[in-house]
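@channel sequence for tomorrow's demo:
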Amino acid sequence: MDTTPDPRRWWGLAAIGLAQLMVVLDMTIVNIALPTAQTDLGISDADRQWVITAYTLAFGGLLLLGGRLGDVFGRKQTLIIGLVGFAAASAFGGVSQTFAMLIIARALQGVFAALLAPAALSMLNVTFTDPQERARALGVYGAVAGGGAAIGLILGGALTQYLDWRWTLMVNVPIAVVAVIGASLFLHNHGTAGIRTRLDIPGALLATGGVLAIVYALSEAEQHGWGSALVLSMLALGAALLVVFVLVERRTPHALLPLHLLRERNRVGALTAVGLTQIGMFGVFLFLTYYLQGIQGYSPMKTGISFLPMVVGMMTGAVGISARLLPRVGPRRLMLPGMLIAAAALAFLTQIDVDSTYWLHVFPGLVLLGLGMGMTFMPSMATATGGVRGTDAGVVSATLNTTQQVGGSIGIALLNTVAATVTANWIVDNGASTPAQMAEATVQGFSTAMWISVGAVLLAFVSAALLVQSRPMPGGAHGEPLEPAIAAAGEQFSGADAAAIPATAAAGPADDEAERA
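structure tokens (generated this afternoon):
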């Protein structure tokens, strides 16, 4: 069997990087464009969160299934289908004339992202079989993810301000065209021929349906009330579906989520930390975007640039601090201080008022939040994906990102409902009618919702303190756990906004077959 590396593999990495860049750009771009899109399409404050949640729900809910589909149909074909579908959904979203059209487009983007993201990572793992080359490829991949978040913030602001918010979606089309051409020419299927993989369709439907019911209930609470029959019945339905999901997964030989992986306390603690901290990250991006544009009068371009200090802080915390200290001090001693710093930063941001200034009241909070989250995400992701081998590696990585997306989806639905409710009540209680009073009501809603983010991060702190053991990462002398962790941290720079998959994902049994071949 010819084991000579493909001389065109680095061109293939370029195609994989473009696919990842497209997914990363999408969320950061849309976040900056959301206020303009809301005004253009007449979206209510209660419904605006669906522009983000429709994407994250579809992405997170179908991610595990998307990786399995790559096992069945081949990674290259799945990647190309995902790219074409993502581009088509983006174009549909770009020409949306109604709120419903935009939500459908965003959900379709999530569906196809769930196909292309694990396929792209699997292609990287099997294309670069030499450990040193794979480390370099993972580094490039992580850099694309990390830099893509910053590029998306600036590009989203520029496109919204100088062209139209619709271009923040349609920009994916030319990127996808180039990525499809590159994937067709330079990538090859590895190790999938003859491998039989069963799909856990019931598991995927139950998990996605359960989370969707819960998110829908949270989003409708502002309009119907927390004690309404609709909200309570949807919460009960969501909980029931998730219970059935667990029962099904216990008896399914090819489960999307093998429950034995959750018997390890460190992994459970890390996954809990990732899921809960997403509430803080998603809340900051949503509310600060509206605060800067709606209250402070920032342009979309200036708003995008205003978020860059958080990206810099996250890179410093993840790569500059955690990547260096993780093999010596262990994950617990990085995660706990990181979450305390993040909680303090969020508490600082709750003090923002109508007359607050960026440099005194926003900038410090963003820098500290990025630093704390970077110190939290790196060890959390390394702990969640550590200690597994073979086919479990891909499942654990996909589970990590599913937790990330589901946590963000539930969190943003809850936070947006709380903010809208507090704002509406403040207007009624204070008889607000002037623009200044309406602005004050809006800021009151943002601040209250941000306190929930503080509570979520503190709850993550407690869970990590109880579950994650204090021990250095095994094998640190050889650096094996750190290469995927560093790449995953680069992914996490965008994960708060874009729902990326860690570069540790092997996405299934086919990769192991390829490695043994």
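heads up for whoever presents: The domain at 9-199+254-507 is CATH 1.20.1250.20 (Growth Hormone; Chain: A;).
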